[in-house]
Amino acid sequence: MRNLFIISLLTLALSAKAQDVKELTLKDALRYALENKAEAKKAKLEMEKSEYKIQEVRSLALPQITANGGLTYNPVLQTSVIDGSAFGAPGTAIQATFGQKWVSTAGIGLDQTLFDLSVFTGLRAAKSTREFYQINNELTEELVIERVATSYYSVYVQRERLALLDSTYANTAKVRDIVQGQYNNGIAKKIDLDRIVVQLSNINADRQQVSNQIQLQENALKFYMGMPIETQFTIPKSEYEINLEILSDAPNTQNRTEYLLLKKQEELLEYQKTAIKAQLYPTLSLFAGYNFLGQGPEMPWFAKPAAGVYWSDYSSVGLTMRVPIFTGFGTRSKIKQAESDIKLLQEDIKDTELSLDLDYRNARAQIENNLVIISNQKENMQLAMEITKNTKNNYLQGLASLTDLLDAQNESLEAQNNYTRAVLNYKIAEVALIKSRAELKSLIK
């Protein structure tokens, strides 16, 4: 009964583990990555942060209202010496003490910018700033998609290689059993049996190596997706397809996110240059204030005139104009620096445009070459499998040697590996070509 109970627990555990294994399509992987990968999350947070930056710029054009207050105690009042003639005593000096021991102020002030070119330039740049972060978010998502898609296909091909090795191992094991029976009956030689055992050992070593590679690549894929490492998944066969329609049209390089981001950055640098120039223009602002002043020999708070404390109010409204006359050529130097930054970026834009066009040309050439290689390798693989099948039949009938059979199996395994590698190279080039067409988002639709 105890053994039955343990077996039941193991069965339930294995069943639960099997249920945790989910099928993962490329679209599922990409959507998961865009929702969970740190880079994608951070790009969205940067967009959110940019909105607050825009609000900060807008606040400069809104009224600035402040409240103020103060309390001062003067233990020793200042004494001033004045001419006594004002008090009917010419030729004498009178020492007079001004002020009160306690002084308290409270009021409210307003400042409103009426004209400041740098503020207005910042307001115009706010829209471009938002668009810059939106494009940057798009670029980040594209980088995540490219990395996940490439890793996804690598995992798939390695799993196919492992399945191929498993099949080859099973077929070779059947041949070993046949040779073992022949050897037991004195038909086959010991060296034949040893050779087939060595062949099995080599295949098993390859299986272990590929299995380790799968583990490493799966962990890398999960990391790129932001998925917990312990998660298990399977990849459906439908992801292993050739798409010939991708070669239809040449892309417009100026639609690439990398190019758009640089152009938006150039626009922001132009605004920055205009904002520096604005330092040469006058500024005009309105100010207004309304205040209360309390003073007397005692602390004015809550005190009354009977205690010698009096409160009075005063107000002021005015305009402030600032006209720059000479800044020591500092502003001019800043303008020249801004112009240099724009010229440097324009060179980067030209170089990026050439680089993006090169990426497209290279990806297209790789796809075209891989299509030819895939076609050839597929024919070689089918031919090698047919040769292996015929050689095995001939071996069982005594018409072929064990060497012929082992050579045929090795050639068949190599042909199938070459085919899977060719398809992997094609899929990687396909991702690069889709990226060059600015259509990576199409992989999740």
Automatic annotation (TrEMBL):
SUPFAM superfamilies hit by this protein: Outer membrane efflux proteins (OEP)
Q: Where in the cell is it found?
A: Cell outer membrane
**According to its UniProt record, where is this protein mainly located?**
membrane
| Molecular-function GO terms, alphabetical | efflux transmembrane transporter activity; porin activity
InterPro entries assigned to the protein according to its UniProt record, in alphabetical order: OMP_efflux (IPR003423), TolC-like (IPR051906)
**Keywords per UniProt:** Cell outer membrane, Membrane, Signal, Transmembrane, Transmembrane beta strand, Transport
| Gene3D superfamilies, per the entry | Outer membrane efflux proteins (OEP)
One Gene Ontology cellular component annotation held by this UniProt entry:
cell outer membrane
Q: Signal peptide location in the record?
A: 1-18
Family note: Belongs to the outer membrane factor (OMF) (TC 1.B.17) family.
Q: What is this protein called?
A: Transporter
Supply the source organism for this entry.
Flavobacterium enshiense DK69
